[in-house]
């Protein structure tokens, strides 16, 4: 894709979820081994990451709602052309999980018209295991319900963070 031959595949990835679940932290953690400098988040922000998986050079453009989740309903333009949507909740706050199933998943069904879009449900902050209120099994069940891949991780300890590209690669083989 694209006239620029510096990558083989290009993805637009969205991060969705309630305020303070760790979307920005996941973005920073995921991007931190790239050369990009982080800009302050104003409006919809995005970061570009180039990396190689399975011999293919991937370009990820990751969009962060950057506080717009306060307005709850994002416009369809935010979703347009997205190949990957990462739905994030905080395993220590149940409302962030129920909001995903009640609000975000419905909005996603409404706006993400790309049938090949890879959806991933991510339970963040597993480093705070003693405060966990949403079980792994509940996460798996919600992911199944909405046809999402599933991952539990911690932006703080980086646990499972590097699973993201491999899951997207798995998705890209579905697309291609
Ligand atoms: P956003 O509003 O969804 O973008 O959430 P932020 O990335 O701003 O994170 C909200 C708060 O949660 C911040 O204080 C982060 O330091 C903290 N946080 C994010 N990820 C983790 C994590 O995996 N573990 C822990 N313990 N705290 C986290």
From TrEMBL:
GO CC field: plasma membrane
Protein's GO biological process: protein transport
Protein name listed in UniProt: Ras-related protein Rab-18
UniProt topology in membrane: Lipid-anchor
Task performed by this protein: Intracellular vesicle trafficking and protein transport.
Localization per Swiss-Prot or TrEMBL: Cell membrane
Organism name: Escallonia herrerae
Family: Belongs to the small GTPase superfamily. Rab family.
Keyword terms: Cell membrane, GTP-binding, Lipoprotein, Membrane, Nucleotide-binding, Prenylation, Protein transport, Transport
PANTHER family: RAS-RELATED PROTEIN RAB
Pfam families given in the database record: Ras (PF00071)
Any GO molecular function: GTPase activity
NCBIfam families reported in the protein's UniProt record: small_GTP (TIGR00231)
